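Thread: quick sanity check before group meeting

JM: Hey all, I'm pulling together slides for Thursday and realized we never actually wrote out the predicted structure for the chain we discussed last week. Dropping the sequence here so it's in one place. If anyone has concerns about the input, flag it before I start.
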Amino acid sequence: MRDYRVIYEFDTETGQVMATVPELNYVSSFGADFAEAERNIKEAVLAYLEALAQEGKPFPEPAEEREGTFLRSREFDLAAPRVRA
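JM (edit): ok, ran it. Output follows.
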């Protein structure tokens, strides 16, 4: 199962939470609070991985860094391109 590191930041000007995944070309999303930002970044990551799969490109490897917040979803593995023998 893939675990992608997420960086959360609070924007004091807008009052929103920004979520960014560096390993996935810095895909990002936002929400009115942490829970909404987390839901939105999961959706954005899944869309990004599905686009890679459609193009036949491999998924980036998750960061080896083990500190911080990580997204984990079986959906990310299901979106992975299948290798043909």
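AS: nice. The longest strand covers residues 3-11. The radius of gyration is 14 Å.
JM: adding both to the slides.
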